[in-house]
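Listing 4. Sequential folding, example run.
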Amino acid sequence: MNIVTIVARILLDILFVLAGAMPFFMAPPPSPGLAGSFNQLFYQSHWTLFVGAAQIVIGILLLTNRFVPVALIMLAAFIYNSFAFHITMLPQGLFAPVIVLILGYIVARPYSGLFAPLFRPQPLRTQREP
């Protein structure tokens, strides 16, 4: 594993552990318009605690370099949702998910062989299938 991948993995784990811990200690900073209403709704319903816990798990998995493919699959869901949020409600903050996407790609690249079967149009036949 090269130094760029290691640095990207460490940056991602720091980002996700810190971002995941924030809902446990403080309310989200106010955002303008619909994004602010959206964030407030998730904070008041305590949904952010579940999201924060998942982000902490991703960060810890990346930090310990254990189950990294699982962490990357979870990370992909967060990246997708972050893009959807920023494109539809807060476009001026779109740089953040772009940076996370780039870091995630750098970390995921060495594991591309593990993910390649997911993108086949036909499933692989197992030995139990006729």
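-- end of first protein; second protein begins --
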Amino acid sequence: MDKAAFIYKEETDTYYCPMGQPLTFSKTQPYQRDSGQGTYRIYEPANCAGCPLAPQCLRKGQEKRKISRDEYDGMRERVAARLHTPAGQEAYAKRMAVAESPFGIIKQTMNFRRFLLRGIAK
């Protein structure tokens, strides 16, 4: 089951599963990526035993579900909510015309179909 099925309540810092079971904060876990480092907050329920959604929710050998949240999840949720408004849809449509046109021009007019990154550090 996807993380999107779980509801996050910011005021209590708690996730709720589709069956209403609270997943409370249990620990932090550092991570390292190419773009930098950060910290995940891990949320766990008290117990998942007997839940009718356990076969869809839990992986093989897992006793309870864990949800992770990094420091950017709140920002991602706010941006997604803004994109679903009429003003957000209009801004996204403008972005498609402004930002994507140069790539189309390069491909069609200049017949430049491939961008090779071999040998260049990403």
